[in-house]
TrEMBL record:
Domain C2: 1-126
InterPro entries referenced in this protein's UniProt entry, alphabetically: C2_dom, C2_domain_sf, GRDP_C2
PANTHER family tied to this protein: OS04G0455700 PROTEIN (PTHR35503:SF2), OSJNBA0006M15.15 PROTEIN (PTHR35503)
Protein name: C2 domain-containing protein
SMART domains: C2
């Protein structure tokens, strides 16, 4: 019989802040789509809210995921990346947002970079590979990893920390855990751990 498997937990947070150097569009909306790997050849896809192409490209949206798993699965997280895509959707007044979206730029950030950073937290501008035109869009993102002691300290400092059974936005942080899709995403992530 092998040694017993030790389990640990982490809180992984992503924040989509803003974009710049984006080719101007006369109508429609911009959003960021990002992909989280579950480690078992499955991927979770999440979208920010859509904002008008006539406004400043500032989302300031957060997503938090409490992960629980074996030490091996936590080590596997260090080998994964988060893929960010800047997208544009043409809004035709009669048809709404039927017809999909257009990829404007794509970038990846490895979780290893977050693990190796001071306080396991980064905030940076990433230059996206452009699929259209010569302008290289930039996206400002934040990524943070917390261990249970850090989560408890934040709870004591700022009050209650949101969990998966809560939803909505508070103080600029959105926790999307209400719908069936999010419950499926949580299950997919936990399956990997």
């Amino acid at each position: 019989m092998g040694a017993p498997q030790l389990f640990s937990s982490l809180r992984c947070e992503l924040r989509i802040i803003q974009a710049k150097n984006v080719e101007s569009k006369s109508k429609g909306s911009f959003f960021v789509r990002y992909y989280l790997s579950t480690g078992s050849n499955k991927t979770i896809q999440l979208n920010t809210r859509e904002i008008s192409s006539k406004s400043d490209l500032s989302w300031n949206e957060s997503f938090a995921l409490d992960c629980f798993g074996s030490q091996d699965s936590m080590d596997n997280l260090k080998q994964q990346t988060v893929v960010f895509e800047l997208r544009w959707r043409n809004k035709v007044p009669v048809l709404g947002n039927i017809g999909g979206s257009q990829l404007l730029g794509r970038a990846e950030i490895p979780w290893k970079q977050v693990f190796e950073s001071q306080n396991m937290e980064i905030e940076k501008w990433v230059t996206m590979d452009s699929t259209k035109g010569h302008v290289l869009p930039k996206l400002q993102v934040g990524m943070r990893i917390q261990v249970p002691a850090m989560v408890e300290m934040e709870r004591r400092t700022h009050g209650k920390v949101n969990k998966w059974d809560e939803c909505g936005c508070k103080d600029g942080h959105c926790y999307s855990s209400c719908g069936d899709y999010e419950i499926f995403a949580l299950a997919a992530v936990l399956e990997a751990f």
